Amino acid sequence: MNLEPRHSAFLTKGTPATTGKRTYVVMGAMRGGTSMVGGVMRGLGIHMGNNIQDNNHECKDFANRPVPHMLQAVKDNSKDHDVWGWKFPNAADYLDRLFGKLKRPHLICVFRDVVSNGSGINRWHPFGEMQAVQTAALQQQKNLNMIALRGCPSILISYEKAVRHPEQFVTEFSDLLGYKPDHDAFDFESFMAPGSYKSFDEFSKK
Description:
single chain; 206 residues; alpha/beta; 6-stranded mixed beta sheet; globular
């Protein structure tokens, strides 16, 4: 993996493609920052699936749906878009069953401090603080195993560094994805501010 400059939020495995057909899968852990990353990708103009839930930027076609339904969604999106993706924190739970149908897959994994992550999970799903921390840690280990075993480019993101240096994050992330951010069309930095879920339309300037 490549170690980026001190304030960078990124590590990369392999060389992410910036041209041609490609599919992005954004994963991490619940309450771990994947919504922020998925929303930024939408702000860059990347199609993140149909039937988007505006509060968390998840495509309903990939949120706990049967595998045949997801395979059809992969087929439809790949037909309509050269570059597209979707965001679902626990995508690693089912991704092996879709992988062979993805065109030039890229894995984007968001990491957050596991104690903060676990606390967030427990606020939304109160089943115990230590159990929630363990849930977050186990999910990220599953993600790391997938990144290690799959031969596709992967982008690892530190949520804490991203929100601490939002302008640098947007610049570097855009470069890795092969896009140019249009700050006149989308308020990336305000959207990235920590807090609650944010609607895409509230930060779109068009």
